[in-house]
Amino acid sequence: MRRVLLLLAVALLAGCGSDDSDDGASATGTNAGSTSIELTATEFAFDPSTLEVEQAGETTFTLVNDGEFPHALEIEGQGIEEETEEIDGGETTELTVDLEPGEYELYCPVGDHREQGMEGTLIVGDAAGGSGTMTDEPDETETEGSGGYGG
């Protein structure tokens, strides 16, 4: 449910030309089987650091360097290891990858940026729904039989 609301919010913000960002990924489908995700690099983090893509397939990552130091994006997992060019502060680059379902590592391959915290996770396809990973639904087993109103 949260993913659907996030995608709707991103679509609305994109239509308004807003620069406001949400805590989640800005994944939008551009055509059947194609997804676009924008993320920002700063010292020393990616925003967002956790990305979810519902369908496997061609995904284009747009990296915006809002930091002062050079940064890049590397995606590794499921037999894939691809990276963007290194870009200076204020620059933007893109990387298009054909993703399979599963989990991937995201990180900045420049110097020791990864060790300083520039890393994240990409979850694609069935792994994005995962069993027991939904956090926006209350856990009914904890609320049954509580008998109170929290007071």
Q: How does this structure look, described?
A:
This protein is of the alpha+beta class and 151 residues long. It is built from 3 helices and 10 strands. The strands form 2 sheets. Strands 1, 2, 3, 5 and 8 form a 5-stranded mixed beta sheet that branches. It has a 5-stranded mixed beta sheet with strand order 4-10-9-6-7. The radius of gyration is 17 Å and the shape is globular.
CATH superfamily of the domain at 28-130: Cupredoxins -  blue copper proteins
Q: How does the helix and strand content classify structurally?
A: alpha+beta
CATH-defined fold name of the domain at 28-130: Immunoglobulin-like
- Radius of gyration, Cα only, in angstroms? 17 Å
- Strand share of the residues? 35-45%
CATH architecture term of the domain at 28-130: Sandwich
Quick structural gist:
By secondary structure, the protein is of the alpha+beta class. The protein has three helices and ten strands; from the N terminus they run αββββββββββαα. It has a domain at 28-130: Sandwich (Immunoglobulin-like).
